[in-house]
Amino acid sequence: MVSVAKIPFAGFHFQGCVCIVWLDGKEYRLATYRGVKILRCERGVIELAQGKYSLTVSIEQRNAHDLAAPQRGEMSRTIRESASCPVRISFIDDGKVILNAENGYGSYEFVARINIKM
Is 1 exposed, middle or buried (0-12, 13-18, 19+ CB in 10 A)? Predict the structure, then answer.
């Protein structure tokens, strides 16, 4: 699971991230509060680095449908969501690839710009 978002905080905004990779009974957590660096976040690709870990997720958005989303306290905005689409994941621990996987059942939504007014 990976989520990158524009977070409002104390009158300003920052780009935040939380990511969990569960592999062989072990949880790897990459997050803003743990010093993750968001190297790339654009339609279809997310790249993260945190200490000895790096993650690349590539998503092919397919069969998207409209999804109501909040804007200024109302569900008046529409974004596109793909509930089942191909995803490729590469997770590296200290230079060693410990996960290189593809799956046809990823879920994905991407919002290019969010205008948050306080």
Answer: exposed
Establish if 114 belongs to a structural domain. no
Give the pTM.
0.83
Condensed to tens digits (0 to 9), the pLDDT of residues 13-29 reads: 888 999 999 999 999 99
Burial class (CB in 10 A: 0-12, 13-18, 19+), 47: middle
**d(C-alpha 99, C-alpha 80), whole Å:** 28
Give a yes or no: residue 69 inside a domain.
yes
* Amino acid found at 26: K
Domain count, the chain: 1
Q: C-alpha angle 103/28/85, rounded to 5°?
A: 20
Residue 48 lies in a domain: yes
